[in-house]
Amino acid sequence: MQKVLVPVDGSPNAESALRHVVRRHLAQPLEVHLLNVQPPFSRHIAQFVARRTREDFHREQADKALAPARALLAKHAVPFAEHVRLGDKAATIVEEAKRLHCDRIVMATARRNSLARMLQASVTSGVLERTSVPVEVITGDAVPPLERYGVPAGIGAAIALLVLAAE
After folding, report:
1. In 3D, which of 41, 40, 42, 35 has the Cα closest to residue 9?
2. Per residue in 92-141, pLDDT tens?
3. pTM of the model
4. Rounded Cα–Cα distance for residues 104 and 72 (Å)
5. Domain positions in the chain
6. Which residues contact 70 (CB under 8 A, 6 or more apart)?
7. Cα four-point dihedral sign 120, 126, 129, 134
8. What is the C-alpha separation between 71 and 13, in angstroms, rounded?
9. How far apart are the C-alpha atoms of 31 and 3, rounded to whole Å?
10. CB-CB contact of 34 with 105 (8 Å)
11. What architecture is domain 2-166?
């Protein structure tokens, strides 16, 4: 039986990847591992927030992100294990795939334009760069128009301001 790691963050794109895994599970049984990675508080913020409060916050956020995945897998009677970790998303996904001896990572990616993809750190790109485990990338929903046009326009405006300031 193949072990599959599916990173979930509660987004529609993550749900697309999970639906893909469910369809595959119907054809052949899989051992599904859900992983939610929570970014830790910076040390500057953490020093003002009690440890217990930080842990409760991360647990609540993880439960919110995992709830749709749990419901989908329960609806289709797919057995699964869930894992919650703190850390850098890409690095943690790679570490968990190794630790769990997964045969594959199935994750979704947002469809972005080339400029936005080049300038923004992508979790998918980070995983692909770091892992030796095969990664199956499922395309997610199209990028909203604001991101499609707003991000490049904002970058162009910032460059124009820098050029003006340099003169």
Report:
1. 35
2. 999 999 999 999 999 988 766 555 555 456 888 889 899 999 999 988 76
3. 0.78
4. 20
5. 2-166
6. 34, 80, 82
7. negative
8. 16
9. 5
10. no
11. 3-Layer(aba) Sandwich (3.40)
